[in-house]
Amino acid sequence: MQNTGLSVKNLSVFYGEKEAVKSVSLEFSPRQVTALIGPSGCGKSTFLRSLNRMNDTIGGVKTTGEIWIDGHNINDSGVDVVLLRQQIGMVWQRPNPFHKSIYENIAFGPRYHGIRSKRELDGIVEDCLRRAALWEETKDRLHKSALALSGGQQQRLCIARSIAVKPKIILMDEPASALDPVSTAKIEELISELKKEYCIIIVTHNMHQAARVSDRTAFFYMGKLIETGETDQIFTNPVEKSTDDYISGRFG
Ligand SMILES: Nc1ncnc2c1ncn2[C@@H]1O[C@H](COP(=O)(O)OP(=O)(O)OP(=O)(O)O)[C@@H](O)[C@H]1O
């Protein structure tokens, strides 16, 4: 069981002169799913990417503010970003398995972090595929290319890959938006299972999905955090008019 949450204080992110995220403070609890919602361009993905310093890979980005995990501010200089991304994993919108076998997709991370024993790696591969509800579909083809899997299976493989390195937090950027309804339902089931162990933060444009999978919801607009609270409250009784307008489809 992981007991780690994340505490964001006054986070701002600039692309050159443009302030895409404006002094956002937000707490994320362990074993909860938080949905980040808001109209296109409001800064959800930029905010999400800053939580494991993926924005560092984009030129011209400046970040200010603090992001605390286990007593460490991840924005401090000297933070080992490889280790950080082991602790805070990311699942992207489009499934992006490595051009390797199903087995190697899972084993790669643990091996990189020092696990050499084949028996141990075999165990990790099976455990992660089981937890991603993919074992039965793949156990007879573990050494075949991951690219031969369907899109939905590839996304579940990417989730299995992300948990193989024992993260504390999993970030998901519209993880089901490229998938059909059946695969989407499987990903949502998987999120509900994984939240028993992890803190999950998900960006979604799908209001039904946010209502189904999340415990808490944060509404962003024009780079600002407008409102956050229990998902039920945000969807039934939002405080801010702009939140109400957005979730009822009046803009965005
Ligand atoms: N690499 C970049 N360089 C410059 N500006 C960027 C970059 N990425 C995003 N932006 C700008 O930052 C703002 C926030 O973008 P971001 O992608 O975070 O929003 P979003 O809410 O996730 O949007 P969407 O829902 O469409 O994915 C937008 O105005 C966008 O144009």
Automatic annotation (TrEMBL):
Entry's Gene Ontology molecular function annotations: ATP binding
Domain ABC transporter: 6-247
PROSITE patterns: ABC_TRANSPORTER_1, ABC_TRANSPORTER_2
Pfam family, one: ABC_tran
Keyword terms: ATP-binding, Nucleotide-binding, Transport
SMART domains referenced in this protein's UniProt entry, alphabetically: AAA (SM00382)
CDD domains: ABC_PstB_phosphate_transporter
Family annotation (InterPro entries): AAA+_ATPase (IPR003593), ABC_transporter-like_ATP-bd (IPR003439), ABC_transporter-like_CS (IPR017871), P-loop_NTPase (IPR027417), PstB-like (IPR005670)
Name this polypeptide is given: Phosphate ABC transporter ATP-binding protein PstB
Gene expressing this chain: pstB
